Amino acid sequence: MTRRARGVAATLLGTIVSAAVLTGCGSASEEYAPTGVDQLVIPTPSLAPDDFVAGVDNPWLPLTPGSRWTYDRIVDGAHGRLEVEVLDRTREIQGVDATVVRTSVVSPRQRVVAQSFRWYAQDAAGNVWFLGEQTTSYAGKRPSTEGSWEAGVAGAEAGLAMPATPRIGDGFRTDYAPGVAEDRAEVVDLSGFASVPYGDLTDLLETEDRTAIEPDVLQRRQYAKGIGLVRELTITGGDQLLELVSYRP
User: Fold this and answer.
1) d(CA 57, CA 64)
2) Which positions carry the signal peptide feature in this UniProt record (predicted)?
3) pTM of this prediction?
4) What are the CA-CA distances from residue 142 to residues 81, 112, 139 (Å)?
5) Buried residues in 210-249 as b, exposed as e (16+ CB within 10 A)
6) Beta strand 183-196 with 171-173: parallel, antiparallel or unpaired?
7) What average pLDDT score do residues 226-243 get?
8) Residue 113 in 3-state DSSP?
9) Domains parsed from the chain with CATH numbers
10) What is the Cα–Cα distance from 44 to 99, expressed in whole angstroms?
11) Which 3 state secondary structure label does DSSP give 1?
């Protein structure tokens, strides 16, 4: 499944935290520059379970079980939906109990064409890590699991989904699975504005996201405190827009 078909991807940002938190071990893959995440190994080849806390309450990426987001998904002028729900269950990955988030891509014909289960965990400093996803596309003649990966399996490493404190210019990998998920993000604004069906929103965090899998694609994402992702625009490499319609915490 391509990046555009997957819809909401892992997420963004950067912060300075204690070197004792998730410095990893061994050598990780190439880091992304510029970077302000000075003492984190991103992506990290291993996770230290004692560095993690239960649940995810980062204000830029709140993942409370039962929360639901619905987005208008416009691709080449056609309107579908993206539905996101935090499930009341966890999955153990490298000894860490990760929060499970289900996303469903609904076509303009009201058919679920793709679904994924994504795994996130928050460290003691408030940074949220993306630990992988199990994704299935129903767009072809047969279901496809292309795009699935898990940290610690087949060379995949956890990426940074949401740091505790974003800074303009911070850049890093949001996930890393060779040939499967190689996304990078850079924080470009902390005072953004968006008018979406959900409402007019200010003081938004904005990132620009790229992937080595589809190097022609550039996306800009906007996040609101206490809500999460509110808008995603594909600037180059396709015609796709996501806008928040409803949010139930």
Assistant:
1) 7
2) 1-19
3) 0.86
4) 22, 14, 8
5) bbeeeeebbbbbbbbeebbbbbbbbeebbebbbbbbebee
6) antiparallel
7) 95
8) strand
9) 3-248 (2.40.360)
10) 18
11) coil
